[in-house]
What we know:
The complex is a heterodimer of chains A (153) and B (417). With 153 residues, chain A is an alpha+beta fold.
Amino acid sequence: MTGGTSGLGEMDELYEAIILDHYRSPRNTAPVEDPNIDLEVNNPFCGDEFHIQLKVEDDTVSAVGITGRGCAISQASASLLAELVEGKSSTEVRTAVDAVRRLLKGEEITDEEADVLGDIEAIGGVRKFPVRIKCALLSWVGLDDALKDHLSK
Amino acid sequence: MSNSNSGSRQFDIDSIRADFPILQRKINGQDLVYLDNAATTQKPSQVIKSLTDYYEQTNANVHRGVHTLSIEATDGYELARTKVAKFINAPRSEEVIWTRNTSESLNLVAATWAEANIGEGDNIVITMMEHHSNIVPWQQLAFKKGAELRYLAHNDEGVIDLDDASKVIDSRTKIVAVTHMSNVLGTINPIAELSARAHEVGAVILVDAAQSVPHMPVDVQALDADFLCFSAHKMLGPTGIGVLWGRTDLLEAMPPYMFGGDMILEVTYEDANWNDLPYKFEAGTPNIADAIATGAAVDYLTELGMDNVWQHEQELTAYAMEQVLSLDNVKVLGPQDPSLRGGVISFIHDTIHPHDLGTALDQQGIAIRTGHHCAMPLVRSYDIVAAARASFYIYNTKSEVDAFVNGMSETEGYFSR
């Protein structure tokens, strides 16, 4: 792909094609009408930030909108999240978030979890770049916390 | 004409590089190109050896000891202080106080001098380009005292407006606390002019010299400064040690910062009184080894001559600015004229985020800094949340600048695949 003497080929695991695709063309960025979850999350240390909106009806995510700015990893990860949660139950979403957390910690995930994640497993390449894990997790953790709050209401 | 800044050793880049063991390291299989010098510099073997020599040959506690090692440790510790004093042209070495770093030096002044001299309705003047360490202590003090924190504005290129400064600094100003050189913009601020204005209204001036003392000749008397702060680790020295220089009359009138051993003259069960300068501000066993190694760092820089250090960095900065500005999609923050800035180049790329750029350059062995550079309000004032920064020192070469610029092009190629 690239690489050669420059050493950039080593980054291919971090910047898989699907990551760059989601970075350039993030999914589900339109604002959600009448959201019942609406939050801003940011990491002041690196400046990544997101506006996350969800509409949860009958325990199902009927609409999602995520916009933000930051590095390729954080933005692609949020786009993958936005694509995943649409139509999922809150339990399914929380299971997926937990699987991604473990994936990024280098822990095993089950075959069922891998099926749910699908393309998102590509985000696991971040493991080799530990300082970037927080970039990948920011939107996921933010959404998970918000969903937890919403469910406890 | 003899000049204390001209140096006794030839400024030979190959022989300088040979003094830095870390420059032999490979990073991700590539030669290390270290361009994060505004964060911390690398250490020459002379400084590293000073540390090991101290611990292997001299280690003992300082002051009051009558045995040989204690006397040698005390002499080394105090000699280093006199080297630092001479380096910044302080009138007296007792005016040089060892701290942990620039942040502690700034906090010391805020907690002692400013605590005693600033009241309700007074104001504190800083610039909009300060490091967090020269913002937050003043914000907290202003909250506590009901004082006003005022900011000196700068133009789009990061240059302070002196006409505006003469209005902002007024009869209620007690202290003007400004960075000598911005760690983000590279701007070199007009300290002597600001000192004159501060003194005209009866205020004192504190200079955050963390980014200037390592890179250019700094003379506290020529600047007419009242306080000046810097860190050893940004000038070839070890981490964990910094300097507060202050005028004798101010330091003598200030209350102590910390209490304990060494800072007292006499203690009874009822009360205590304070030791003379500088010990009044050095409670507890000090950082002896690192102070001595700071002396070794000062020796190294003095031998090279600070005029030569500055000239090398100016040449490198001009060369790098020309190359970086020639890249499409890259914008450099701060003065565009290299002669108005130090060797710090912060930049943003239109399409590649600083962290992606940082990771990609690291893969190529090139160390730069990315993020808010401990100056969040400043970085946000450019409507960005992060920037990339390359910063130079004595061991950096034009071919390293070429490697960096080439690395940027490689990175653009990678992300446009």
